[in-house]
Structures are given as structure tokens and as C-alpha cells.
From TrEMBL:
<comment type="similarity">
    <text>Belongs to the aspartate/glutamate racemases family.</text>
</comment>
<dbReference type="InterPro" id="IPR018187">
    <property type="entry name" value="Asp/Glu_racemase_AS_1"/>
</dbReference>
<feature type="binding site">
    <location>
        <begin position="20"/>
        <end position="21"/>
    </location>
    <ligand>
        <name>substrate</name>
    </ligand>
</feature>
<feature type="binding site">
    <location>
        <begin position="194"/>
        <end position="195"/>
    </location>
    <ligand>
        <name>substrate</name>
    </ligand>
</feature>
<feature type="active site" description="Proton donor/acceptor">
    <location>
        <position position="83"/>
    </location>
</feature>
<dbReference type="Pfam" id="PF01177">
    <property type="entry name" value="Asp_Glu_race"/>
</dbReference>
<protein>
    <recommendedName>
        <fullName>Glutamate racemase</fullName>
        <ecNumber>5.1.1.3</ecNumber>
    </recommendedName>
</protein>
<dbReference type="InterPro" id="IPR001920">
    <property type="entry name" value="Asp/Glu_race"/>
</dbReference>
<dbReference type="GO" id="GO:0009252">
    <property type="term" value="P:peptidoglycan biosynthetic process"/>
</dbReference>
<dbReference type="GO" id="GO:0008881">
    <property type="term" value="F:glutamate racemase activity"/>
</dbReference>
<feature type="active site" description="Proton donor/acceptor">
    <location>
        <position position="193"/>
    </location>
</feature>
<dbReference type="InterPro" id="IPR004391">
    <property type="entry name" value="Glu_race"/>
</dbReference>
<feature type="binding site">
    <location>
        <begin position="52"/>
        <end position="53"/>
    </location>
    <ligand>
        <name>substrate</name>
    </ligand>
</feature>
<dbReference type="GO" id="GO:0071555">
    <property type="term" value="P:cell wall organization"/>
</dbReference>
<dbReference type="InterPro" id="IPR033134">
    <property type="entry name" value="Asp/Glu_racemase_AS_2"/>
</dbReference>
<feature type="binding site">
    <location>
        <begin position="84"/>
        <end position="85"/>
    </location>
    <ligand>
        <name>substrate</name>
    </ligand>
</feature>
<keyword id="KW-0961">Cell wall biogenesis/degradation</keyword>
Length: 294
């Protein structure tokens, strides 16, 4: 195991940057707070430019890099790209360009292959994730004997971004995606987008106990723990009176949009009263967009 002996107490105390195209990464933040309660977190929701699933590859890489660099400038000691779409599209580039350790996320194909008894599993993810070479390689590596039914979750990220996790229209949209999987014999459903764990109650209302839902957020928190340990970057546990919350890592919430939905979802789904900072993180592609709009 690689250990960086030059990590100092101040680098251990630095925050972890977590970023998503929008609110979905809150499902990863929830797991990280629970698993690594001594860590400080800076969360960035790029809600102004969500969903990434409808963006071109260059746009996603441009935003992922700009936000990663911004988080490094904020003092982040490690970065979690809590977005399957950004990971699938640009993790290799970002890994090359940033000086801090990185953790990406990917659909839970490997756990699905271990769990499925019927040997048929559905995957809900964005179109960009499903068509990526990284996803194709994941299926080839771990699911050679599994029938994988890929379904782009059009409209689901948008629903979560407006804090809709249970409306009748949303349930009908989901039904159209998962019922054909049930009809084809799937007993496992991979939630291949970090927004989708917030839809678990709605999905359960359709599939009941007929499917196991695979959400990798806890595995991501464990992977982050391993990476921090490899680099000697784990924060020390809070001591009484040092101001850190005992019940979970403290977090700074930032949004490139007005932040209202980030605050609502953090309160409704995580029980956090988040004071959201509105931040501007310009990048090459967003400067072009703004120049075109002017
Ligand atoms: N949470 C992102 C993911 O995991 C959503 C991508 C999007 O904005 O379309 O893929």
C-alpha cells in the first residue's frame, strides 16, 4: 500500500471536495458523512449546467476539470467525482490534470453480477454513461454471464433537480422504464446515476420486493476511506469542543445556480439545514455560452 509520509496535520484537516452536475451527489455525501464523520466536505452542485446527460463530451470534461481545479483552489485534499456521467466521460483527463487523489463513481455492475439470481439485471443511467467506453468495459469485465438491460433515465435527473421524487407523473415515467425490465425477468436494478437513490421509494412503489436496488454510495465512501489512508490524509476524529458535528462530517454547500433546490433537497432527504453559497465557476465552454447569449 502506498503511503505519502509528507502528509501534514493541516493537509489531513483539509476538506474533501465532492462534486456532481447537480443534487445527485448528495446521495454520495450522505454516505461519506456517515462513514467518515471526522472529514470536512465542500460540495459543489453544478445545477446551472445540469443535466450533463444532455451535454456533449467536451462540455462535461470542461466542467469537471474547472470544478476540480476550483475545489483544489478551495484547499480540497481529495476529490470525489460523484457523478457517473462525468466519471464515465472525463475521469482519466481530470486524474491527469489534478494534483490531488481522485475517486470516481460507476454503475454497480459488479455487485449486480454477484447478486442477480435470474441473471438478468436492469441498469438505469444517463445516455452519456451508457454509451461510454468505460461502461462497456465494465460490463465486459464483470457481467459476461449476465443479461444487462440498459435504460437511459430521460427526465429523471430533471425531476430530482426540481425536488420531485414522488409525483404521479414521475412514478409513471419510472414505470415505463422498469416494468419492461421486470417483464424480461430482471431481479436486480442498478441505479447508475447518483440522482437515482433519491427515487428509491418511488421505484419500490412499482417493483415491490421483486428487484434488488443497487446503489454504490456506501462502496464509494469506503473507497474514499482507502484512498485517504493510502495518502495518509485521514482527518483525526473530532475532539470535544473543536466545533465539528458529532453526528456526521461538516459540510459547506455550493451551487452554481441559486441554491434553493439544493437547500430544499438537503433538508428533505438528508435532514441538513444547508446554508448554500452561490458560486461562479467559469470555464471555457460556459464563457462561450455566455458570449453567444450576449
Ligand atoms: N448525477 C449524475 C450522474 O450520476 C447526473 C448526470 C446528469 O446531470 O445528467 O450521472
Amino acid at each position: 500500500m502506498q503511503t505519502h509520509l509528507n502528509a501534514t496535520a493541516s493537509s489531513c484537516a483539509a476538506p474533501i471536495g465532492i462534486f456532481d452536475s447537480g443534487l445527485g451527489g448528495l446521495s454520495v455525501l450522505r454516505a461519506v458523512r456517515a462513514h467518515l464523520p471526522a472529514e470536512q466536505i465542500v460540495y459543489v452542485a453544478d445545477s446551472r449546467y445540469a443535466p450533463y446527460g444532455q451535454r456533449d463530451d467536451d462540455f462535461i470534461a470542461d466542467r469537471t476539470l474547472a470544478i476540480g481545479e476550483w475545489l483544489v483552489a478551495q484547499g480540497a485534499k481529495a476529490l470525489v467525482v460523484a457523478c457517473n456521467t462525468a466519471t464515465a466521460q472525463s475521469i482519466a483527463l481530470v486524474r491527469e490534470r489534478l494534483s490531488i487523489p481522485l475517486v470516481g463513481v460507476e454503475p454497480g455492475i459488479k455487485p449486480a453480477a454477484l447478486i442477480s439470481k435470474s441473471r438478468v439485471a436492469g441498469v438505469l443511467a444517463t445516455q452519456v454513461t451508457l454509451r461510454s467506453a468505460r461502461f462497456q468495459a465494465l460490463v465486459e469485465r464483470h457481467a459476461a454471464d449476465l443479461r444487462v438491460l440498459c435504460q437511459p433515465g430521460h427526465g429523471l435527473v430533471e425531476a430530482v433537480e426540481r425536488c420531485d421524487v414522488s409525483s404521479p407523473a414521475l412514478v409513471e415515467l419510472l414505470r415505463g422504464y422498469v416494468e419492461p425490465m421486470l417483464d424480461a425477468g430482471a431481479d436486480t436494478l442498478v441505479l447508475g446515476c447518483t440522482h437515482y437513490p433519491f427515487l428509491d421509494t418511488a421505484i419500490r412503489s412499482i417493483v415491490g420486493e421483486r428487484m434488488t436496488l443497487v446503489d454504490t454510495s456506501v462502496a464509494i465512501a469506503r473507497q474514499l476511506e482507502r484512498v485517504l489512508d493510502q495518502h495518509g490524509l485521514r482527518a483525526q476524529p473530532a475532539s470535544p469542543g473543536d466545533g465539528r458535528m458529532a453526528e456526521g462530517a461538516s459540510a459547506r454547500f455550493c451551487s452554481t445556480s441559486d441554491g434553493a433546490h439544493l437547500r430544499t433537497l438537503a433538508a428533505a432527504l438528508l435532514g441538513i439545514d444547508a446554508q448554500v453559497e452561490c458560486v461562479s465557476i467559469p470555464s471555457r465552454r460556459t464563457r462561450e455560452l455566455e458570449a453567444d447569449a450576449a
